[in-house]
Amino acid sequence: MSSVLSSGTQPVRIEQDVVLARQVVRKAAIDCGLRLIDQTKLVTAASELARNTVVYGGGGDMDWAILEDGLRKGVRLLFRDEGPGIADLKLAMTDGWTSGGGLGLGLTGAKRLVNEFELDTAPGAGTRITITRWT
Ligand SMILES: Nc1ncnc2c1ncn2[C@@H]1O[C@H](COP(=O)(O)OP(=O)(O)O)[C@@H](O)[C@H]1O
Ligand SMILES: [Mg+2]
Known about the structure:
The chain has 135 residues and is an alpha+beta fold. 37% of the residues lie in helices and 33% in strands. The protein has a single domain (3-134), classed as Histidine kinase-like ATPase, C-terminal domain (Heat Shock Protein 90, 2-Layer Sandwich). It contains four helices and five strands; from the N terminus they run E-H-H-E-E-H-H-E-E. The longest helix has 20 residues, at 36-55. The protein is globular, with a radius of gyration of 14 Å. The chain binds adenosine-5'-diphosphate and magnesium ion. The site of adenosine-5'-diphosphate has 22 residues, from helix 2 and helix 4.
């Protein structure tokens, strides 16, 4: 069982919030003791998910937490919105698939950059994506 050392919430409503979310994640990653390369991986993943929250989710929030689990520490991020949800998850998790003229590499890229990736969504029920990067 992991315990929470610190936590907070960053609104992710407009494009500028993506920048704020990146800064919050970078600080949490530094405070957590993630090495530079892992800080950058987490910030990059968060950036993609935050942008999706704004563009497709109609805005939402990012909950962040620094966790301690035995000898390791980590940063966990939850991106949540009350938007349309994702109808075909398998399609959305395919490299290069986009519904909106993007590159279609945000979700798949984010998944590769973290240690844990969980996606909960249903049409009309919004989207919740949890990612964790451990030291
Ligand atoms: N929060 C979300 N709410 C609704 N749909 C989403 C959300 N995030 C991603 N999607 C869907 O998944 C697709 C793939 O996302 P992504 O891999 O980031 O590619 P891109 O942003 O380039 O389209 C998006 O085109 C969109 O249809
Ligand atoms: Mg995207």
